[in-house]
Design a protein that fits this description.
This protein is of the alpha+beta class. The protein has two helices and four strands, in the order ββαβαβ. It has one domain. The relative contact order is 0.29.
Length: 65
């Protein structure tokens, strides 16, 4: 596994899907938002597969799961 590849792991949150970030970009997110776990624009009723597909499209080069 590449340790320097950016990744996003989708996790359930309160009403929204959350995106847990890891990789080289993470320190910038923490500096900007104070966390590496950010809310997505997807309601928790959206199927996980649909959220993953949309985030993969918007984040080329990221591993999204």
């Amino acid at each position: 596994m590449e340790t320097d590849q950016s990744s996003i792991q989708i996790k359930p949150g309160k009403g929204l899907w959350m995106a847990q970030h890891s990789g080289p970009h993470t320190s910038e997110l923490i500096e900007l938002f104070g966390s590496d776990r950010l809310p997505t624009a997807f309601d928790s009723s959206t199927p996980k597969e649909k959220v993953i597909a949309a985030l993969r499209k918007r984040n080329p080069g990221f591993r999204v799961s």
